[in-house]
């Protein structure tokens, strides 16, 4: 959309609280901006055309408020209406896993990063599920790192548009009787989604397993295929050692544990985490060590500060405004 056709533009102030400073994504009915609040802190502003119906921004705002206490969920600030748009002010995030892995020469992460991310992702899903929701769109693009040097090692889950309440009858989780719809992305959706079965907590975990396999191996057996039926057939064929042959042996039990679940079964999140920790121990991996991208970002940050110091009469730049421009999202240095 051309800026002159866009009713929301850089410099606008929303509700006397948020001054828009740059566009992140642009569209005719949905936009995301970076803005400054009254304390000069950068926040994300999502706007969606107000159609009079429940919108994705409305759904996300409601769910973020419910999940707000978790460090693995972006912080909710405010929801309201501006002009003809519903808006959501929330924590500004850094790049997602796709951005981070694309920055590397090979499309894959180290086993250390896979295990550490897997543990955080399970913790995140446990929070979402404990609040009574199934995410239904677990994919690498929906896991973002924090937007500061202090939070670039924390993965946060976003995009709750497809999120749905877990079905309960008289307070007891009960398998839905209605036919489901395909939800998620072809690459990471569970077989239940292909079969149009209503998705549960187990399906979020299957999608996570596919992510871990892809980001460690560099691809999935169906990565280059677009046909849904062919992808479904490959997912039915590739499991166990066929899917997990390059990963530590604990992943066989990890997969088996998830596949044993149905809609009503409570996942044993602690056991799944223990399997990943066991894999780390057997491979002499220190899970307290930073992610590989944290080290790369620190090196880039040091380079920016060093170059700035050479050009500036000041001893150092304002660290709160140091941006890592080689990443798709801004990483702000915070004290």
UniProtKB/TrEMBL annotation:
Organism: Streblomastix strix
Protein EC: 2.7.11.1
Full protein name: non-specific serine/threonine protein kinase
One Pfam family matching this protein: Pkinase
Keywords associated with the record: Kinase, Transferase
Lineage: Eukaryota, Metamonada, Preaxostyla, Oxymonadida, Streblomastigidae
Major enzyme class: transferase
Presence of the UniProt keyword Lyase in the record: no
SMART domains registered for this protein in UniProt: S_TKc (SM00220)
Protein kinase domain mapped to chain residues: 18-292
Keyword Kinase annotated: yes
Molecular functions (GO terms): ATP binding; protein serine/threonine kinase activity
């Amino acid at each position: 959309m051309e800026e002159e056709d866009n009713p929301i533009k850089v410099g606008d102030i929303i509700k006397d609280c948020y001054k828009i400073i740059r566009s992140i994504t642009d569209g005719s009915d949905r936009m995301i901006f970076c803005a400054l609040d009254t304390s000069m802190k950068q926040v994300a502003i999502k706007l969606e055309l107000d159609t009079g119906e429940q919108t994705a921004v409305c759904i996300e705002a409601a769910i973020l408020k419910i999940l707000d206490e978790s460090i693995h969920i972006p912080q909710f600030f405010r929801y309201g209406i501006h002009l003809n748009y519903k808006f959501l002010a929330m924590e500004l995030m850094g790049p997602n896993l796709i951005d981070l892995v694309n920055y590397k020469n090979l499309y894959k992460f180290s086993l250390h990063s896979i295990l550490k991310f897997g543990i955080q992702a399970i913790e995140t899903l446990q929070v979402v599920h404990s609040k009574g929701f199934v995410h239904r769109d677990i994919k690498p693009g929906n896991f973002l790192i924090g937007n500061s040097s202090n939070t670039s090692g924390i993965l946060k889950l976003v995009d709750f548009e497809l999120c749905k309440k877990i079905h309960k009858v008289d307070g007891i989780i009960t398998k839905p009787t209605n036919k489901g719809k395909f939800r998620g992305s072809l690459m990471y959706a569970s077989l239940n989604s292909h079969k149009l079965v209503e998705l549960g907590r187990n399906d979020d975990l299957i999608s996570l397993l596919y992510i871990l396999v892809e980001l460690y191996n560099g691809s999935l057996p169906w990565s280059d295929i677009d046909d849904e039926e062919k992808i479904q057939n490959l997912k039915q064929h590739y499991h166990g050692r066929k899917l997990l042959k390059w990963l530590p042996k604990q992943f066989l039990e990890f997969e088996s544990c998830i596949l044993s679940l149905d809609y009503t079964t409570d996942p044993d999140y602690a056991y799944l985490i223990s399997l990943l920790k066991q894999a780390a121990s057997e491979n002499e991996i220190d899970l307290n060590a930073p992610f590989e991208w944290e080290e790369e970002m620190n090196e880039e940050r040091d380079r920016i500060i060093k170059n700035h110091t050479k050009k500036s009469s000041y001893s150092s730049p304002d660290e709160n405004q140091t941006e890592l421009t080689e990443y798709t999202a801004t990483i702000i240095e915070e004290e």
